[in-house]
Write a structure and sequence with these properties.
Blueprint: E1 2-4, E2 10-13, H1 17-27, E3 33-36, E4 48-51, H2 53-61, H3 65-71, E5 77-82, E6 88-93, H4 96-102, E7 107-110, H5 111-124, E8 128-130, E9 137-140, E10 145-149, E11 152-156, E12 158-161, E13 179-191, E14 206-212, E15 215-222, E16 227-235, H6 237-240, H7 249-255, H8 261-266, E17 276-280, E18 288-289, E19 292-294, H9 309-330, H10 335-364, H11 368-380, H12 390-393
Parallel strand pairs: 1-11, 2-3, 2-12, 3-8, 5-14, 12-19
Antiparallel strand pairs: 4-7, 5-6, 9-10, 10-11, 13-16, 13-17, 14-15, 15-16, 18-19
Helix pairs in contact: 1-5, 1-9, 2-9, 9-10
Length: 395
């Protein structure tokens, strides 16, 4: 067995957005960090990602926002429309007033582009990135952590579990399992010139969400407008019938059959050879055991309706590194105090985001009289009203 770690303060298990965000934040505040990633390379599967100002403020503080904006798009508006008749229900202007209010912009970016930016930033900061390294277990002691990965043993002051929704290390904190919503997502990111039916000028400037009965469709540009992203999400009848195979392309077409022309045309831009069943977990109050802590989706996996999964992982990283810097300035660094402060600060906020995302999904997908009431309320909303956003995006 090879023992590694005399020169390491923190070992991060998982090299996704949350893992790399933590690694970068800790490295730039003076810590020696190693990231262990199971996959053979640091790469992200998926398409578009929405970055709200609660995350872009942090990216700016880290010196990464300019790179993110250059790789992505600054949308003009977030627009909600009815998926059946295509009418606009409400919108949120994302321009100068929005940026001034929340002290940062709203950015849409390809997931792989954000991961690449974070990986390069980690390399510049001196983080050791180790791909093709599957972690078997972590022994969380009172004063250190031992990470077992094949024949190697990685020793550090702290281990962070950033191994995602199906985190194996979360089992040390809770016996819970991922909760299936019965919904499935199809995604597609195509060169804009290849989009069936073309893309009109407004669609190239906005994030548009079509709300339907048990379904919704989201569209927005990526990579400086060179690509166009489409996501279709729907509730699977086959899942509720208890069938083992559910959420297939036939169901996709069936559920969206009554939608307006714009929505049905959007379905042609989806990848139909892959799909993403939607899971979350219930909040848990304990994220720290000895010198092991959960972070990102391992700590608080959430449904996508608030577009906050990556944003909350970045908040985690900022909180942990800030607590470490604050306490190290006061005295010799006590990681137990750092982790306790991190847990106390983050668990209540992320639990609120998790539960609110579920409620928001319910509101999006109503039908019948509930749809009429929802649409009336949204149409009556003053576009300048931010009372439901300040708690999430505010400073």
């Amino acid at each position: 067995m090879k023992v590694r770690g005399k020169d390491t303060d923190v070992v991060v298990v998982g090299g996704g957005i949350g893992g790399l965000a933590n690694a970068y934040a800790l490295a730039t505040t003076g810590h020696r960090v190693r990231v262990l990633e199971r996959a053979p390379e640091f790469a992200e599967v998926g398409a578009g990602l929405q970055m709200a100002p609660n995350a872009t403020r942090i990216l700016r503080e880290w010196g990464l926002l300019d790179e993110v904006v250059a790789a992505g798009v600054l949308p003009r508006r977030l627009v909600f429309k009815d998926a059946i008749d295509g009418s606009e229900l409400t919108h949120l202007d994302l321009g100068a007033d929005f940026v001034q209010r929340y002290e940062a912009p709203y950015v849409v970016i390809h997931r792989s582009d954000l991961l690449t930016i974070l990986a390069r930033a980690c390399e510049r900061a001196g983080v050791e990135l180790v791909a093709g390294c599957a972690v078997d277990d972590v022994h969380a002691l009172d004063d250190s952590a031992v990470v077992l990965a094949g024949p190697d043993e990685h020793r550090a002051d702290v281990a962070l579990a950033a191994d995602g929704l199906r985190s194996a290390l979360r089992g040390k904190f809770s016996a819970d399992e991922p909760v299936c919503s019965g919904y499935v997502a199809y995604r597609g990111a195509l060169p804009t010139a290849d989009v069936v039916g073309g893309v009109d000028e407004d669609a190239m400037r906005d994030v548009v969400v079509y709300l339907g009965a048990g379904c919704h469709l989201v569209q927005y540009p990526l990579r400086r407008g060179e690509m166009f992203n489409t996501v279709a999400v729907f509730e699977s009848p086959a899942y509720h019938r208890g069938e083992s195979e559910w959420g297939g392309p036939d169901e996709l077409d069936e559920v969206f059959a009554g939608s307006c022309d714009e929505v049905r045309r959007g379905l042609a831009s989806l990848w139909r050879d892959r799909r993403w069943p939607m899971f979350d977990r219930l909040p848990i109050s304990s994220w720290v055991k000895g010198r092991l802590a959960l972070t990102g989706d391992a700590a608080h996996p959430m449904l996508q309706y608030l577009a906050q999964g990556a944003c909350q992982a970045i908040e985690d990283a900022h909180c942990l590194s800030t607590e470490a810097a604050k306490l190290s300035a006061e005295s010799d660094l006590d990681w137990s105090r750092v982790l306790a402060a991190y847990e106390q600060t983050r668990t209540a906020r992320t639990a609120r985001v998790q539960s609110t995302a579920r409620v928001w999904g319910d509101i999006w997908h109503v039908d019948g009289l509930a749809r009429s009431l929802r649409n009336e309320l949204l149409r009556d909303r003053d576009p300048a009203d931010h009372k439901h956003l300040d708690w999430l995006y505010g400073v």
